[in-house]
Amino acid sequence: MTQRQKSTPDMEELFAGHVAVMLDRYDRALEHHKFDAAVVYSGSPHMQFLDDMAYPFKANPHFKCWAPLTQVPDSFIIYRPGEKPVLAYFQPDDYWHKPPDDPAGFWTAQFDIRILTEKDNARTLMPVGHKAFLGEWQERFSKWGKFSANPQGFIHELHYQRAWKTPYELACMAEASALGALGHRAAYLAFCEDTSEYDIHLAYCAACEHTDDQLPYDNIVALNQHAAILHYTYRDTAVIPAPQRKSFLIDAGASYNGYASDITRTYSFKDDAFAELIDQMDELQQIICDQVIPGASYPELHLDTHRAIGGLLHAAGVITMHGDEAAEAGLTSTFFPHGLGHYIGLQVHDVGGFMNDAGGERISPPQGHEFLRLTRTVESDQVMTIEPGIYFIESLLNKLKDSPLKSAVNWTQVEKFIPYGGIRIEDNVVATDNGPINLTRDAFDKLGQSHS
Ligand SMILES: [Mn+2]
């Protein structure tokens, strides 16, 4: 890709800065927890039960945090404070599978790279002393020296710090957003034709040049009422012709150097009441995105969103209570039954969202909002999703019908919206001291078209 080649000189500098931050974080964590060195294992392929085939390989996020290597199993980062980190790079002579390419690119200068052709040769590279091991432990490693496998305190500290992204990480996430925007545009164009969920999914993957395994999470491609299933990952091959096509919800991201984007858009096929509700939700979502500023309480943003969604439902004639009252009574939770969002980075639902400090003290979500995955105060250089939703989920609506809040709902209006499933709009937002940077909207803008 020409775009990637163009950015290479910058990436070299950005990556050097990123590794400097990693060294600093590891130096401090090793000292705090009294280890002499760290060994970070990329992982190994997992075999399917009674089969000779492996599941798709997913690298240890701690390994990806060191180097942009997502498909190099049985490799290690070995770091001893004061020394250049060693990358033990497993490149077997294998005629059954494609071995990893020779190490090349903007990242290689930061490591002392040793090629391994046999898995157990990594043993000779292990430093002396007590080592913190991060990754999926295997019994064979116990012969390689003194390790603590995945020490909790050490991991807590690294997870806490992962919330702050380096400029390199932000650049990778902007690229992941750009790829995601390409996919979303193709998916929207596919939706405008007679098409199936399956075909829309293929159009998405083709546009961002991802296989299913490269996607940061399973695409959610939902037509009509399927949009009411929060994690709908089934892809129906049935073509839905225009007269039956009502709505389209797509929650799909992309990966770049191991970093994810996580983007959701909802469309109405016609210019109808549901389209109006989408527009209002889009407006509300952008108001919340604008509040991703240092010092903001994420749980408060979540609760504000509930009140605002209550207001939208009231204005749309779905409920008879006003917004604040509806949120207070728990009525909005039937229509918005998930959290406002989560950290994002190396993992789509990135770690550390509940951590009050590097020691791992937990900040619980507000009562009645147990699904909220991020309870920390927003700080500069943190990246989070903002993804409010309104759904018409029959099982939850049936529960509401059995509750005292039944009378606060205009059921005729609810029936009208049920065939559309629901709405979710999700962007990835960076908090900075100069205001929020919306990676998702920026990516769509760069495509020359602003999607809602
Ligand atoms: Mn998300």
Strand order of the largest sheet: 4-3-2-1-5-6
CATH top level label of the largest domain:
Alpha Beta
As for the CATH topology of the largest domain, it is Creatine Amidinohydrolase
Structural class: alpha+beta
Summarize the biggest pleated sheet.
6 strands, mixed
Strand content: 5-15%
Query: Counting H and I runs of at least 4 residues, what is the number of helices?
Result: 13
Number of strands: 16
What are the secondary-structure elements, in order, as H or E?
Answer: HHEHEEEEEHHHEEEEEHHHHEEHHEEEH
Rg (C-alpha, Å): 24 Å
Low-confidence stretches: 1-5
What shape does the CA trace take?
A: globular
CATH architecture of the largest domain: Alpha-Beta Complex
Number of domains: 2
> Mean of residue pLDDT?
96
Ligands (ions, cofactors included): manganese (II) ion
Would you write up a description of this structure?
The protein has 452 residues and is an alpha+beta fold. It is 33% helix and 14% strand. It has helices at residues 2-6, 8-32, 61-66, 152-161, 167-191, 197-207, 273-289, 298-315, 323-329, 332-335, 394-401, 411-417, 439-446, and strands spanning 37-41, 76-79, 86-90, 112-116, 130-134, 146-149, 220-223, 247-252, 255-256, 259-260, 263-268, 383-386, 389-391, 422-424, 427-430, 437-438. A 6-stranded mixed β-sheet has the order 4-3-2-1-5-6. The chain is globular, with a radius of gyration of 24 Å. Mean pLDDT is 96; it is low at 1-5. It binds manganese (II) ion.
